[in-house]
Amino acid sequence: MSLFAGLEHIVREDEPLAPYTNLKLGGKAQYFAEPTTEGEIAELVRRATAAGLATRLIGGGTNLLVRDSGVSGLVIHLSAPAFSTLTIEGNRMIVGGGVRLSHFVSSCAREGFDGPEHLVGIPGTIGGALHVNSGSDGVDIGSWCVAAKALTRTGELVQRGADALSFSYRSSSLNELAILEATFEFERENSESLTREMQRNWIVRRARQPSFGEPAAYLFKDHLGEPAGELISRAGAKGLRAGAVQLFDANPNYLVAKEGAKVEDVLSLIEAVKTHVNDKIGVELALAMQIW
Length: 292
Ligand SMILES: Cc1cc2nc3c(=O)[nH]c(=O)nc-3n(C[C@H](O)[C@H](O)[C@H](O)COP(=O)(O)OP(=O)(O)OC[C@H]3O[C@@H](n4cnc5c(N)ncnc54)[C@H](O)[C@@H]3O)c2cc1C
Description:
Elements: E1 11-16, E2 28-33, H1 38-50, E3 55-58, E4 64-65, E5 71-77, E6 86-89, E7 92-96, H2 101-111, H3 126-132, E8 135-136, E9 139-140, E10 145-151, E11 157-161, E12 167-168, E13 171-172, E14 178-185, H4 191-208, E15 216-218, H5 228-234, E16 241-242, E17 245-247, E18 254-257, H6 263-281, E19 290-291
Parallel strand pairs: 2-5, 3-5, 4-19
Antiparallel strand pairs: 1-2, 6-7, 7-14, 8-9, 10-11, 10-14, 12-13, 15-18, 16-17, 17-18
């Protein structure tokens, strides 16, 4: 592995990616790295770029389908403690890109930081969530983000201030290769009432999404303010399935992969739902999940 000489302790070849994704499907990464410092991730990216290798980031893998052919180039996983810190400074929280969204949400409620209690139940990491501006019920993570530290595709560390950040529905200006850290700023509220609100939201949400750990995916973006799940129901596509993959009953904007599910089943079901909704109600659904 002369390309990554001196970094062998953090780089593996031909690493299966399925265990790192929620759907537990798909092939291998040519190179897979778990850097432990900002210096290491920068060095990995510089070497991959110099060698003409594509580099990708994987967070919680909750918004990803990896094809059976796998991924050529380098996949970086921010699993090390250096990317999982969470610090409070006054009304601000500084959070590593690898921090679980669930940890962020519960820490905000405990601290009396108003807003993130609406995001309870969304799986994934801070980096993945900021990359696509994840959210729920009209509340998006980008709305509290005032600064970010990122790594460019050439391996340069950059700081982005509020003036360089813009977020809209499932879209973010933070399109650097890796979001390493983000600073959020909040209004304060009573911590006990935020915790109660978070628990209420969690009960409602639990009933309308697949349970944590179940191989599942969140499929499409809402269309002109109408939830994708309602569009799919309105088009009569609710019962569609492909092989061992089926739409989730309580909200058909999720699919659930049963035992024996294949990547091809997921791709076929996505295509079938898109075609059905377009044919029946003339809406072109846009995919929310990423396919590698
Ligand atoms: C049951 C279920 C419910 C869901 N509910 C919602 C919901 O209500 N609302 C919603 O918006 N989404 C929802 N999702 C989708 C998903 O959980 C979120 O989009 C989540 O924020 C993705 O984070 P992740 O860390 O898992 O990203 P990944 O799946 O690992 O990656 C997604 C994308 O982000 C990029 N990325 C990941 N980490 C970084 C980083 N540090 N820097 C730069 N880019 C990065 C990846 O390269 C990839 O392009 C749901 C998914 C499931 C399975």
